[in-house]
Amino acid sequence: MSQSNKNLVFVYGTLRRSGFYNHLLKDSEFLGQALSCRKFGMFVNEYPFVTPFVEHTEIVGEVYEVDVSALQALDRLEGHPEHYRRCQTRFVLANSKEIEAFIYLYPGQERDMLLIGPEVLNGDYINPRYS
C-alpha cells in the first residue's frame, strides 16, 4: 500500500476480529492489539459508543492499515460525520510502539451516554466489566 493511501484505524467494537462487521476489514492489514494512550468513556447498548467527554479508562481494541476504499466503507458504517466522528489520537500497540490512528467517537455528552446503556469500566467491548 503506498504511503499516500495508508490509513491506520483503531477499532474497538463490532469491527474487531471477533466482531460482526470485521469482514469489512478482510483486505486490510491487521497490525495488532492496541490500547488508547488517553482515557475515554465507553458505553454500550446494541454496540459500543466511545466518547471523549468522559475520561474514565483506556480503550482496548485493534489497529488495521486500511486503504481509502476501506476507510470510506468504515465511514459509511459508522455514519461519519453525523453519527460517529472519525478523529485521530495516539495508541500503543502490544509491542509498545506508539502510533497515531483514526478512531470513531460518539459526540454525545455523559448524560446522553447514560441514557444509551451501561458504562464498560475496563474499556473492552469483547470482555466487558460493566458499571
Describe this structure in words.
By secondary structure, the chain is an alpha+beta fold. The chain has a single domain, classed as Gamma-glutamyl cyclotransferase-like (Hypothetical upf0131 protein ytfp, Roll), CATH 3.10.490.10. The protein contains two helices and seven strands; from the N terminus they run βββββαββα. Strand 3 and strand 4 form a beta hairpin. It is globular and about 40 Å long. The mean pLDDT is 93.
Name a few traits of the molecule:
131 residues, alpha+beta, Hypothetical upf0131 protein ytfp, five-stranded antiparallel β-sheet, two-stranded antiparallel sheet, globular
Helix count, DSSP H or I runs of 4 or more residues: 2
Order of helices and strands: EEEEEHEEH
Computed Rg: 14 Å
Oligomer: single chain
Low-confidence stretches: none
CATH architectural category: Roll
**How many β-strand stretches?**
7
Shape verdict: globular
CATH superfamily: Gamma-glutamyl cyclotransferase-like
Q: Within the largest sheet, what's the order of strands?
A: 1-5-2-6-7
Protein structure class: alpha+beta
- Give helix % range: 10-25%
Query: Which CATH first-tier class would you pick?
Result: Alpha Beta
Please state the average pLDDT score. 93
Walk me through the topology.
Blueprint: E1 7-11, E2 29-36, E3 41-44, E4 48-51, E5 60-66, H1 68-78, E6 85-93, E7 98-105, H2 110-116
Antiparallel strand pairs: 1-5, 2-5, 2-6, 3-4, 6-7
